[in-house]
Amino acid sequence: MPRAPASFAAFAAAIGLLLLPAAASAQVPPYADPPNPALKKGSMIPDPSRAALVVIDPQNDFMDPKGKAWPVVGEAVTQQRLIPHLHQLFAAAKAAGMVVAISPHHYYRWDHQWRVQGPLEIFQHDIGVFDRKGPYTLEGFEGSGADFLAEFKPYILDGKTIIASPHKLYGQQVNDLSFQLRKQRIDQVIVVGMLSNMCVESHVRQFLEEGFEVGVVRDAIAAPKLPEGDGNLSALINFRYMANGLWTTDEVVKMLKK
Fold this sequence. Notes:
Elements: H1 6-14, H2 22-25, E1 51-56, H3 60-63, H4 70-79, H5 82-95, E2 99-103, H6 119-127, H7 153-156, E3 162-163, H8 177-183, E4 188-194, H9 196-209, E5 213-222, E6 225-226, E7 229-230, H10 231-242, E8 245-247, H11 249-257
Parallel strand pairs: 1-2, 1-4, 2-3, 4-5, 5-8
Antiparallel strand pairs: 6-7
Helix pairs in contact: 5-11, 9-10
């Protein structure tokens, strides 16, 4: 077997990139951290007095087995144990007195007339994900795909949770989420929800650009697995580069209890 060029070998060794044998790598969980990371982990420590739990798209079309997008996201939602993990995080945040904010996704009839669309937009509009009759009516909303998952409603509809205006593509650039958080003197956010590599990642990037300290709960996010790639793995790779904190649900719950 030909040897790798010396320059490449030196580079790989310098940043700790070790190629595992195929048999060994097959035993590594799909979302496990690299055994020899090149980057230091972020040092974010959530402070409930200035931190918010931001939950993206906790809606039926993504999280209910009857939802329109379940055929492409259900495997990841189940594998990640997303629903029970979100339960834990909602409860822990409420117990800690933290601000909790929802960034929902809603589409109205005029949104289906967009002339400029990307692949995921086309998919969502084709199947009618998050459709509502309009912004000023609740006709047909209760229990629809755009509605919140029923088991999360006690947390979301408690009169304390911020429900931001809807985002349209992936990030909060066109809704009032950041504005609402700034009005609460929030400068730390813990981001969870869906889709990992689309809405979650876009929210994370925008929050970082706005100067927030941003953490992600790695087992409280989920994304489709398609021939184009595993969206959860794609996002996780980028979060290892960018996030100020990257934790499991259990780790966050312990931190908030302290």
